[in-house]
Amino acid sequence: MRLQTLDSLNKKFKASPVVIYLISVHLAPQMVDLRNGSTVTEFILVGFEQSSSSTRALLFALFLALYSLAMAMNGLIIFITWTDPRLNSPMYFFLGHLSFLDVCFITTTIPQMLIHLVVKNHTVSFVSCLTQMYLVFCVGVAECILLAFMAYDRYVAICHPLSYAQIMSRQVCVKLVSTAWFFGLINGIFLEYMSFRNPFCRDNHIENFFCEAPIVIALSCGDPQFSLKMIFADAIVVLLSPMVLIVISYARILASILGRTSSSGRGKTFSTCASHLTVVIFFYTSAMFSYMNPRSTHGPDKDKPFSLLYTIITPMCNPIIYSFRNKEMKGAMVRALGRTSLAQAESI
């Protein structure tokens, strides 16, 4: 289209070579960008490519162990909360969905990273990168919102115990979880559009172990500032707003228990709230560093640790903090293991 325009202008302004030169100078970079943009059909995930072979082998063993542990713990929680009738309460309903989100979250990024630690080919297709980024957005946003709803559930249970069953009914819990998933799905579409709205005509090396939006946007043609600003504004809504709700909920919980429990009960509640807040702070601050910081302050050595923190460390810590320290969950695990042992004995 632009080539035809340039030819027609050349015929029209034969006596004005200066005009033709100025127009060609203006249009040429855009034509080059379009040609180059069409050639970017895949990305290269640098990840830990520059590490030594012994370091990659050590990282592979470490991340495989962490991934297996996270999958086993979250899978056990999903099975228990969805099959044990004694865990029929909103808290365990939310815990089961949190574990399911964690399984989806780590499966989206970690298996690919493990493969790239042992093979030399680190390329991913354009569609694969787009799909992975959407899943990370969708599940990550849904988990952010669900953590806020879980904090509100604890607040109602502790501060308004007499009205708890009425406020947190089964229908309300289902609506809250559906809301988290809905915002995750819709928000993923919006962030995906912001990330891939421009063509790609620059370096296709992604300095991370998965397709992270700010890094991918920086590789696109044109000015990426609009997309980065929109992602920043979106992060304020999906990261800061739930985090504020979580902090307010736990602050009211702590204020409520200070004057009405014994010293031992107070210490236990403080310990539980501190554990929950620690995991939440790790998850939200690492995600905020990735999506709310100026790109000038980023670098491979800074991005990877924070990406690992919210993609694998937090999903592994959630079962330990939220579930395995709970007496009812321990009892459910014992009953589940007892049923499994009994079934195996009967089969023999």
TrEMBL record:
PROSITE patterns: G_PROTEIN_RECEP_F1_1, G_PROTEIN_RECEP_F1_2. PANTHER family: OLFACTORY RECEPTOR. InterPro entries: GPCR_Rhodpsn (IPR000276), GPCR_Rhodpsn_7TM (IPR017452), Olfact_rcpt (IPR000725). The lineage of its organism: Eukaryota, Metazoa, Chordata, Craniata, Vertebrata. Keywords: Cell membrane, G-protein coupled receptor, Membrane, Olfaction, Receptor, Sensory transduction, Transducer, Transmembrane, Transmembrane helix. GO terms for cellular component: plasma membrane. One of its GO terms (molecular function) is G protein-coupled receptor activity. It comes from Lynx pardinus. This is Olfactory receptor. It is found in: Cell membrane.
